[in-house]
Design brief:
By secondary structure, the chain is α/β, with parallel strands linked by helices. The chain has two domains: 149 residues, Aspartate Aminotransferase, domain 1 (Alpha-Beta Complex), CATH 3.90.1150; 196 residues, 3-Layer(aba) Sandwich (Aspartate Aminotransferase, domain 2), CATH 3.40.640. The strands form three sheets. It has a five-stranded mixed sheet with strand order 1-11-12-10-9, with helices on both faces. The structure holds pyridoxal-5'-phosphate (PLP). The site of pyridoxal-5'-phosphate has 13 residues, from helix 5. Belongs to the class-I pyridoxal-phosphate-dependent aminotransferase family. Its cofactor is pyridoxal 5'-phosphate. It holds the Pfam family Aminotran_1_2. It comes from Solanum pinnatisectum (tansyleaf nightshade).
Length: 382
């Protein structure tokens, strides 16, 4: 080691513009900016149709099974210690059994890596796949967390379109033209966020599945997710992907042990009626959402949501006075109506909006009333 040389490297963390853009446009940061635009003089309560977390609404409270399981795990005093790097065995076994219900073969606990929410699973897999010249195929619109991590790990991002007129299916021709020998992964989100679509089985054949209990069990604060390797032919193992994942998890922190302790009870005991109640609630909300959209000429929904809790709607700027783009629309909407909606640009689709409909129906109706009032005021005069 020579210590008399001076370094000429210039450190500039703003150099990578894509990275800065990706970080500046995370859903969270855009929503925070919109919230700061709310007029403090408006005495009405703030309505947010921009969130991804319905847990605060009484109709979307998690099941008592989950609440009891977590309390039991803490009271047992068995889960106060450190976890193992991949997650404790009973928790991995429970996740393997639960996910195997929907598969033609059985997953083993060794296929399961527990993470702090699905968010950390994204971090883990992108770090595990990163290598010089690697590229990844990402959907537009998509989930910005992938862009942010791809930026950090310096994996080149290539975007393929989801087709609104085909229920947001992947443009497969485009995928074929983008992929090459350095393509390490293609991201598929099902049910769709931000589009609310559900893919056919035929359309899905991913080899690594990321997921979490955040949305289905409505406990996003619990931070328990998973990365699952579906590798019956040992291809991932042969290419070193498995070692890379385990290696990354060795140095990264684990989901809280008590929530891992609770997971077998949560997964085994939650009855179908909890999920069907949630799905029925979401269906009612989606119906309200699509009906009210029809009353507001400046937005249209090309494809009714079939899953998830989001609808992507197209914004028709030509019908509006003095609105520059989707971000301008959402900023003025927050200022004038104390209503928060996510601009499409935050999920990669400019001049669209992502509307979250997972809330109390009356709250959703109030939100659409404000949206309509805003449109009436801003509509272009003939
Ligand atoms: C909600 C969501 C996540 C984050 O999940 P957590 O379990 O809360 O970390 C990641 N990707 C998509 C597509 C999501 O909808």
């Amino acid at each position: 080691m020579e210590n008399n040389t001076t370094t000429t490297t210039k450190w500039n963390f703003k150099e990578n513009e894509k990275l800065v853009t990706a970080l500046g446009l995370t859903v969270r940061s855009v929503l925070n900016n919109l919230t700061s635009c709310i007029d403090p003089a408006d005495t009405r309560f703030v309505i947010s149709l921009g969130h991804g977390d319905p847990s605060a609404f009484p109709c979307f409270r998690t099941t008592p099974i989950a609440e009891d399981a977590i309390a039991d795990a803490i009271r047992s005093a068995k889960f106060n210690g450190y976890s193992s790097n991949v997650g404790i065995l009973p928790a991995r076994r429970a996740v393997a059994e639960n996910l195997s219900q929907d598969l033609p073969y059985k997953l083993s606990p060794d296929d399961i890596y527990l993470t702090s929410g699905c968010g950390q699973a994204i971090e883990v897999i992108l770090n595990a796949l990163a290598r010089p010249n690697a590229n990844i195929l990402l959907p537009t619109p998509g989930f910005p967390c992938y862009e942010a991590w791809a930026g950090f790990t310096q994996i080149e991002m290539r975007h393929f379109n989801l087709l609104p007129e085909k229920e947001w299916e992947v443009d497969l021709n485009e995928v074929e033209s983008l992929a090459d020998d350095n393509t390490v992964a293609m991201v598929i989100i099902n049910p769709g966020n931000p589009c609310g679509n559900v893919y056919t089985e035929q359309h899905l054949n991913p080899v690594i599945t990321l997921g979490s209990i955040s949305k289905r069990w409505i406990v996003p604060g619990c931070r328990l997710g998973w990365l699952v390797t579906n590798d019956p032919n040992g291809i991932l193992k042969e290419h070193g992907v498995i070692d890379s994942i385990a290696g990354y998890l060795n140095i990264s922190s684990d989901p809280a042990t008590f929530i891992q302790g609770a997971i077998p009870q949560i997964l085994e005991k939650t009855k179908d009626d909890f999920f069907s109640k949630t799905v029925n609630m979401l269906r009612e909300d989606a119906d309200i959402c699509c009906d009210r959209i029809k009353d507001i000429p400046c937005i249209t929904c090309p494809s009714k949501p079939q899953g998830s809790m989001f609808a992507m709607v197209k914004l028709h700027l030509n019908l509006l006075e003095d609105i520059e783009d989707d971000l301008d629309f959402c900023t003025k909407l927050a200022k004038e109506e104390s209503l928060i909606i996510l601009p499409g640009v935050a999920v990669g689709l400019k001049n669209w909006l992502r509307i979250t409909f997972a809330c109390e129906p009356s709250y959703l109706e109030d939100g659409f009333q404000r949206l309509n009032a805003f449109y009436q005021r801003r509509a272009k005069k003939q």
